[in-house]
Write a structure and sequence with these properties.
two-stranded antiparallel ribbon, 330 residues
């Protein structure tokens, strides 16, 4: 699993690549979904309507429907000791996937009032790379899981934040994250199969659980893969035929089934995020086609909206299980 959080909340008519050094902050997610054509830019202070984010990058406040890296990715430095090089992305590191999952947690809290209420009471928690055994006996490590903890907190903070735990008694939301930074054509069957099998395992274990998928696809024309480099040799640069390579992967992933109701086969929500990352310079969010556009079923705002709506419909009243009085937190 390897991906990262991104400056999401893309707007219709933006028509450009968003650079990490620009201060671009959209209105709250609900306004974006409602179809407002305006974009609030250059604001450096204040909170956004419904904001439930934790502001991980210093004192920056990010609005719902938006997560702050490529800034995170641009700041991130992975030191390859074998090569003596610094890169932004390394397929053998899970730092990127952990960041992505943390940002999605914040966005879901901002988008889903029942989830915020339950989080403030300590009724639900989340885990990253969480090992969970489903009722049918299938053991799976879940990239991001939200659900009912095996134990309850001694004290309730009242803050609309999900506590991070090592185990969940009941998984309500299960998210699988994948990244395709290079070798797009070669990666198509593997990424499709891994995403497809994830929702099958989830729904075999619990039919009303929300199964979600996220794919990050690179549209950079060049990419420096750490795994292709050799000590003492010139840097090997992989060249991509863009935008065709990214478009092919995006269209391939649109073949993943999205179910309309419990009992059917498919994801409950799935999104593709497109980035421009050559693994040397700053990472950029790419919002122009072939990236998913606002209103599309694989656009990030649609993804958040679907999960928030399904969660409110299915889990406003939580499933019951025996609770104890301690909480194993990280």
């Amino acid at each position: 699993m390897a991906a990262w959080g991104l400056a999401l909340g893309m707007r219709r008519g933006l028509g450009k690549v968003v650079r990490v050094h620009d201060v671009v902050r959209p209105r709250c997610l609900l306004t974006q979904i409602a179809g407002s054509s305006t974009l609030n830019c250059g604001v450096r202070s204040g909170r956004w309507l419904g904001a439930g984010t934790r502001g991980r990058l210093g004192k920056t406040k990010w609005g719902p429907g938006m997560t702050p890296a490529p800034e995170w990715l641009t700041r991130h430095e992975h030191a390859d000791r074998r090569l003596g090089r610094i890169c932004r992305y390394h397929s053998r590191s899970d730092a990127h996937s952990i960041a992505l999952c943390e940002f999605i947690v914040d966005d879901l809290l901002a988008a889903c009032p029942p989830l915020r209420t339950q989080a403030a009471r300590g009724d639900v928690c989340y885990g990253i790379n969480l090992s969970h055994r489903w009722p049918q006996g299938k053991q799976k490590t879940i990239d991001l899981a939200i659900g009912v903890p095996t134990s309850r907190p001694l004290l309730e903070t009242g803050e609309a934040q999900l506590r991070k735990v090592r185990a969940l008694g009941i998984v309500l939301v299960s998210l699988e994250a994948k990244a395709v930074m290079t070798e797009h054509g070669k990666s198509q069957p593997r990424v499709y199969d891994e995403l497809s099998s994830s929702h099958e395992i989830v729904h075999q274990g619990r039919q009303d659980a929300i199964a979600a998928g996220v794919a990050v696809v690179n549209i950079a024309e060049t990419f420096i893969s750490p795994l292709r480099q050799r000590v003492g040799q010139p840097v090997e640069v992989t060249r991509h035929k863009q935008p065709d390579a990214a478009m092919g992967m995006i269209e391939h992933l649109r073949g993943l089934p999205i179910r309309d109701q419990v009992g059917q086969v498919g994801f409950d929500a799935c999104t593709t995020i497109v980035v421009d990352c050559d693994n040397e310079g700053p990472a950029r969010l790419h919002s122009m086609p072939p990236a998913p556009q606002p209103g599309g079923r694989d656009h990030y705002a649609t993804f958040l909206e679907h999960i928030a709506r399904l969660y409110a419909n299915r889990f406003a009243m939580l499933p019951e299980q025996n609770q104890t009085r301690t909480l194993a937190e990280e």
